[in-house]
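quick one, two chains, predict together pls
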Amino acid sequence: MKHCLIVDDSAVIRKVARRILEALEFRISEAEDGAKALAVCERDMPEAVLLDWNMPVMDGYEFLGHLRRMPGGTRPKVVFCTTESNVEHIARAMQAGADEYIMKPFDKDIVAAKFQEVGLV
Amino acid sequence: MTETDHRFLSAFLRARSGLALNSDGLYLVESRLPAVCRRFGLSDPGELIAILRSGAVPEIEAAVVEAMVTQETFFFRDKAIFAQIQDIALPRLLEARAASRRLRIWSAAASTGQEAYSIAMILAGMAPSLAGWTVDILSTDLSDVALERGRLGLYTHFEVQRGLPIQLLLTHFTQAGDLWQISAALRRMVSFARVNLMDDFSGLGIFDLILCRNVLIYFDDETKRDVLERVAARLAHDGRLILGGVETPVGLTETVVACPDFKGAYSHVGCNRISRCDRDSPK
């Protein structure tokens, strides 16, 4: 079972995403900011990260930079999932090493399509 | 709705769109017709049916057909098909058409055009080898509303996230308020026309690649056979016809047969290889 880390400061979003991804047969971890997400990655590097942009302590963009420099940190597929939906944000995320990008609001079809796009389902 | 009204509506839809109402038909009628009633200020579906029977208001007839036909579509729907179009069909067609440098593609019953634009995006990625070529991509549907949306190339937040890789969104789309618009260059590659598969479409000419996916499933067998044979007659002698994943000509017609090297594609009998076919073009 593949491991997916959901990083979002909204407990509601984490709960919704967890339901969708568990239905896609992922084992789920959760973190409410980038710093806590890095701690999860140090312990148990996931195959996938569903990543919010705007979070307290450490945002998703900064987290992605740290992740990609960690040992084994280039391996996870990172799918941004954010309300930031302009071209500049999307381009910036992709240049920073994201694999896909979901603009909120999302539904299960979009999550499934994006995870399929990066070869996770 | 009375049983008589239901029978009338079934016959009306079959004649106008080929749609055969199955066991889900009553549910579809009850869920979709109230919106048409509200749009035209009608009290209930019974009044709507009475107007359809009179044949006096073409706008309402068109609205009923549009409401009842399924317009589900998304970019790169069924990735395996598009991978084979990109890796097998298009390279072979380009080789086979090197002399004429012309390629014609038809996306039939294509709703708002995502299928045609998916092909256009693939071709845009092959641009260097297409210099000097004339490529026509025709996207047809019976819904004027869907066709107009396709012409504008405007898609919602949800539509651009189903099947479209983010890099292609960045490459080929711009933001237009809450919507995303496909580039003018790709819009110029695709033309849109109203074509009802129930009608004679022989005037469209011959195509090298035809996509007619996920529409035959809504027809009864007699209509499936009729449409398949007339679509196949529009296919170039060595062209490829692509059907939906659960659609097949087997048991309906022997006009086309499965291509062994392209799952989901069909060709004229004896034309399994695009560049090695010696069969005459269909008349």
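Strands of chain A lie at 2-7, 26-31, 48-51, 77-82, 100-103.
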